[in-house]
Each structure stands twice: as structure tokens, then as C-alpha cells.
Write a structure and sequence with these properties.
Blueprint lengths: L16 H13 L24 H15 L1 H13 L5 H16 L2 H9 L1
Helix pairs in contact: 2-3, 2-4, 3-4
Length: about 120
């Protein structure tokens, strides 16, 4: 079965014999090696992040949780995220860390937070 689509490339309508002969002459003389030049990409630049890291905030949030409680610590984490100072991943890690403390019984929580 024949395809409906026509082949693209050199056809009788757009064939220019002079250009083709010139290309063949350059190719046979060694001016064209048959391979295109490889263009190297520009060097990578490092992006300096202005976000606060998880390890920097962890100890300060524990002291905030000890002093002011769960809801204010949670509100502080959300405010940092809304101000784009922490990423979504860091926000979820910090919230889960605070949730672990909040889910503990009061006696165990006091022992852990007093250390």
C-alpha cells in the first residue's frame, strides 16, 4: 500500500545542481568531513539559594515549641513558607518533626524537650 505523504528533501522543483556540485567538490577536497561541528553547551552556573535549611531551623523550632506551644510553632512554619524563606519539602519535614513531639504523651515530651 502506498503512503499518502510525500517524501521531503531534494526534489526536482527545489534541486539546485550548482549548489550540489559545489558541496560535492568541497566534500571530495576534504573541506567538509561529513560531520557537523559539535557545539558545547555553556558552563553551568550555580544558583545561590536564599532558602533556610532544615538543619538550621530544627533547633530553633524546638525551642519555639517548648516556649510557645504547637499552634504558634505551626503558624511560624507556615509564615516562613508564605514569605518564601523555606521550600515546600522543608515545610513538610518541619511540620512532621513537630507533630512527632506533639503526639507524644506529656511526660515523655517534657523529658525530650528538657534535654
Amino acid at each position: 500500500m502506498r503512503s499518502i505523504r510525500k517524501a521531503k528533501g531534494i526534489t526536482i522543483k527545489n534541486f539546485n545542481k550548482e549548489k550540489w556540485d559545489k558541496y560535492l567538490d568541497e566534500y571530495y577536497n576534504g573541506n567538509i568531513n561529513g560531520k557537523e561541528e559539535v557545539i558545547s553547551p555553556p558552563p553551568r552556573t550555580t544558583i545561590k539559594s536564599s532558602l533556610l535549611s532544615y538543619t538550621e531551623l530544627k533547633s530553633s523550632l524546638i525551642t519555639l515549641y517548648r516556649d510557645k506551644g504547637y499552634s504558634s510553632t505551626q503558624a511560624y512554619i507556615y509564615s516562613l513558607y508564605n514569605k518564601s524563606k523555606i521550600s515546600l519539602l522543608t515545610r513538610s519535614q518541619l511540620l512532621s518533626h513537630i507533630n512527632v513531639y506533639h503526639s507524644l504523651p506529656r511526660r515523655e515530651r517534657k523529658k525530650l524537650l528538657s534535654l
